Amino acid sequence: xxxxxxxxxxxxxxxxxxxxxxxxxxxxxxxxxxxxxxxxxxxxxxxxxxxxxxxxxxxxxxxxxxxxxxxxxxxxxxxxxxxxxxxxxxxxxxxxxxxxxxxxxxxxxxxxxxxxxxxxxxxxxxxxxxxxxxxxxxxxxxxxxxxxxxxxxxxxxxxxxxxxxxxxxxxxxxxxxxxxxxxxxxxxxxxxxxxxxxxxxxxxxxxxxxxxxxxxxxxxxxxxxxxxxxxxxxxxxxxxxxxxxxxxxxxxxxxxxxxxxxxxxxxxxxxxxxxxxxxxxxxxxxxxxxxxxxxxxxxxxxxxxxxxxxxxxxxxxxxxxxxxxxxxxxxxxxxxxxxxxxxxxxxxxxxxxxxxxxxxxxxxxxxxxxxxxxxxxxxx
Length: 380
Fold this sequence. Notes:
single chain, 380 residues, alpha+beta, 3 domains, four-stranded antiparallel sheet, 20% strand
């Protein structure tokens, strides 16, 4: 039997103050057989005197997962465990790093997790979609004015056909924590960082400590087919191939849950190889979009029309292409679900990553209408 999804958040405890966070959804649904096995194995270990519950039972200083409510604890702990590779789970890593100054180690935690799986969790239905392993964000993220840190996952761990296709997001400590309030993370730039295959990805959700905050969801509407890019010339022969186009120009803010560092994972509803998509509305592209590209001399930075371009613009989006190829490149940077808020328009309107704004306010509305007409035709 599948259990219901959790509806409570974690608690931030520092000194005498505590803040509770929103409504969350767990990435792991669980079942009664799994919960029963958990209670008799990992939960029993965690709640033994001097073990995890000393700091993780809901009163700090760590995140609350060894709580009195067994079902709640079960669903929270499940988010940290990869049952396909238990020794590599984030929970095992934390158990073995000596942070608790107790009689816990990797071997004891691994054995309890294996017992949990063998005695009941292996009977639970798996959640639809693909969930990455959790990675620790650490305590040294760049601050608001210091850029972002890239976190990556090999999609081959989730879908064998996508081996060595690397997906990533960028994270910064947007607001630093204080003794009375948690900090805030800013997460943006979901994209495939490297690979050699055309991929379809849909329904990206960001999980923090295994929980999904619907209020911070800006990526679940993504449904894109993206292909590797070319760049010319590369700065040096050892320079990596350029990343795939961004999936979204949006950013999401997440409340920090653990004063000692949170764990980040991604979930995808769809993850598969795909055929490269062709331009579907070349006439509209040539009449609605191409005049803007030419009129604003985009090729000066991005390359084309006998201009080499300027790094990194010609590296991230090389435009020395024929009209059909350029239309296809623009298609990969556009989303019918959000029209002119697509990545390519966000850059052009100066709303993303310090790209210069190339339109006046008066021009912007006219260009939006033209762009929307092409997008509507391209994705009909």
